[in-house]
Amino acid sequence: MRTVEAEINYLGAMSERPRYHAQDHAKDNLVLDPRKVQIADRRGDPASLAREGFELVPHKSAIANFRDEAEVARVHNREIEELLLAVTGADRVVVTGRGILRFGERSPDSGRMFNSHPARFIHIDISDATAREFAARSQPDGMTVRRFAHYNVWRAVSEPPQDVPLTLCDARSVAPADLAFADAVFDMPGAEWSFEGLLVRHNPAQRWNYYSGMTRDEALVFKTNDSDPSAPHHIPHSAFNDPSCPADVGPRASIEMRAIAYWS
């Protein structure tokens, strides 16, 4: 299997509870521990949601312009719902929030829109407590739920290859001791709010992966929480600089959609 060596940012030693912001990272209370790791290109060895907790799937969208927030809400939400119903076997899927556009730092759009920087430290979007709270909030009316799972659907909307792709850690290689609770703050003007997420400490047993040269007709689906203890639970992930990417490619642009699947 092809691999690249790249630097990713773990959580370093801290005596206080970490706190990080969606927009203004100058306000973060965060000590990072950069490490070089081997990252496997899974193009030659596909992963699965049922085994590693992430999967690359063919998925052609009808969206012409992913920057059109109204079109994304009108068309893409339904596309993501149908995709996750198909790949998870869930009974219902609820798309939560808007599509989040992110841009590599070489793009003039990086940071220009709210929460549009690539995430440069390893994290898991939500803790178990947050997952339960968000699942209860979005639970379909009248549905008795025996299981829920949160998913992130990540799509590159720039031309391949990506200079700043996404790396994901095999859920089976993550130990509970690797994780630390943290406050994720959405620092929108006049409407700051937060929830509990997770950050990740270095462990040489962790297995890192990515998919090179993603196209807009592919979707990278990965879990951020699963209430089923027999299933892969959650996927640490981070942006990284791919050293094998040519220097003259355009900067990465991507969109991610979050959704919750429910089983009755």
Strand-helix topology:
Blueprint: E1 3-11, E2 19-21, E3 32-41, E4 54-58, H1 69-88, E5 92-103, E6 123-124, H2 128-138, E7 147-156, E8 166-169, E9 179-186, E10 193-200, E11 208-210, E12 218-226, E13 237-239, E14 253-263
Biggest sheet statistics: 5 strands, mixed
Cα shape: globular
Fraction of residues in helix: 10-25%
Name of the top-level CATH class = Mainly Beta
Averaged pLDDT, please?
95
Order of helices and strands: EEEEHEEHEEEEEEEE
Strand content: 35-45%
* Total E-strand runs: 14
What topology, given as strand order, has the largest sheet?
1-3-11-8-13
Gyration radius, to the nearest Å? Answer: 17 Å
Backbone structural class: mainly beta
Please give the oligomerization state of what you see. Answer: single chain
Helix tally equals: 2
Q: In total, how many domains does the architecture comprise?
A: 1
Task: Tell me the distance between the termini.
Answer: 39 Å
Which key phrases capture this entry?
mainly beta, Jelly Rolls, 264 residues
Explain this structure:
This protein has helices at 69-88, 128-138, and strands at residues 3-11, 19-21, 32-41, 54-58, 92-103, 123-124, 147-156, 166-169, 179-186, 193-200, 208-210, 218-226, 237-239, 253-263. With 264 residues, it is mainly β. It has a single domain, classed as Jelly Rolls, CATH 2.60.120. The strands form three sheets. A five-stranded mixed sheet has the order 1-3-11-8-13, with no helix packed on it. The model has no long low-confidence stretch (mean pLDDT 95).
